[in-house]
Every structure is written in structure tokens, then in C-alpha cells.
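Progress note, sequence design subtask.
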């Protein structure tokens, strides 16, 4: 992978990290607001708790993605970006284009998911 290509991925990852941080802040505000409405009763309160549950899961998902983005940026700094952490082979450019934060090739990802 050329230095220019790596820099393009770095810029995409930095932009994605900023978007995720902004989203996390907004979702955190919504969760705090949901918990502050404890005086609502009945069906309205149940709906509020359902919304809070969804927000909580979104936050969890975004936090995991943020950790992957940070890990990818760290790998760029270490010079290992684009190499599979499982087998050491190059991760295909198309896979990195689709998900710049990945750290495993397709084969190693399938093995990981199979458990």
C-alpha cells in the first residue's frame, strides 16, 4: 500500500472518528434526558424506557466502532495498517474501502465469527 493510499485511509478514519464522537455526544444527551423524565407514568414511561434501550444499544455499537477506528489509526502509526492481524497477509483494498477499520482479512474474520 502506498503512503498516499494510507494517508487517504487515515483521513477517512479521522473523519469517521469525529462523526462517531459527535454522535455519541448526541446520544448521551438523549439518554440523560430519558433518565431525567422519571416522573412520567404509565405507557408514556414505558415508551421512554424503550427509546432509552434503543439509544443505549446505539451508543454501545458506536463505542465499539470508535474503538476499532482508534485501533486502525494506531496501526497506521505503527506501520501495520492493511495487514491482517490473524494471518499477516494483506487485507484486500476493496475490504478496506468498504470498512477502513477492519483488522482481519475475510478468511480470518470468518474463522473468528465461527468461534
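Output:
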Amino acid at each position: 500500500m502506498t503512503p498516499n493510499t494510507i494517508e487517504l485511509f487515515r483521513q477517512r478514519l479521522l473523519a469517521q472518528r469525529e462523526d462517531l464522537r459527535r454522535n455519541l455526544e448526541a446520544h448521551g444527551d438523549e439518554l440523560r434526558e430519558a433518565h431525567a423524565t422519571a416522573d412520567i407514568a404509565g405507557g408514556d414511561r414505558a415508551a421512554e424506557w424503550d427509546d432509552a434501550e434503543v439509544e443505549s444499544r446505539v451508543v454501545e455499537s458506536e463505542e465499539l466502532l470508535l474503538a476499532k477506528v482508534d485501533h486502525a489509526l494506531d496501526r497506521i502509526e505503527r506501520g501495520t495498517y492493511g495487514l491482517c492481524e490473524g494471518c499477516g497477509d494483506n487485507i484486500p483494498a476493496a475490504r478496506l474501502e468498504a470498512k477502513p477499520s477492519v483488522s482481519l482479512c475475510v478468511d480470518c474474520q470468518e474463522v473468528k465469527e465461527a468461534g
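Residues 3-114 form a domain with the Four Helix Bundle (Hemerythrin (Met), subunit A) fold (CATH 1.20.120.910). Work on this subtask will continue into the next period as scheduled.
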